[in-house]
Amino acid sequence: MGREGAGFKIAMTALDSGRIGIASQALGITRACLDESVKYAKDRKQFGKPISSFEAIQWMMADMATGIEAANWLALSAAWRKDQGLPFTKEASMAKLFASELANKSAYLALQIHGGYGYLKYFKIERLFRDARATTIYEGTSEVQRLVIARELLKEL
Predict the structure, then answer these.
(1) Which domain holds residue 110?
(2) Does residue 38 sit within a domain?
């Protein structure tokens, strides 16, 4: 349980750990958005060719893929610091903030790629769009993450 008077610190460490988990969940949602978008864009034809041949669609997928790489490194860095017994509050908040905001942006882009079909329950994007939103709320909203990050930066400098 911990020593007397250490409850708040223990609770905050648990919250920080949970933020790494939420970052990982958001990464999974983003990856699914990209996978579904690539598959759909290759199959969907407009003007006699797959929509994956259009630059606007390619740019949306490129943004998702680039974000996945960046969010993955942030989450890995936070997890590594935790495993090493180093402070990881700031890194966990950065990973959670970036990955959850990315999941929302990627769900939006995936919905754009899918058009009206993205709203249909038949397509996975409809669920991913809803799931992405939750990642910016639990374990602390995006605004709270920004406060935590700023507070940690001010302590360091």
Answers:
(1) 53-157
(2) no
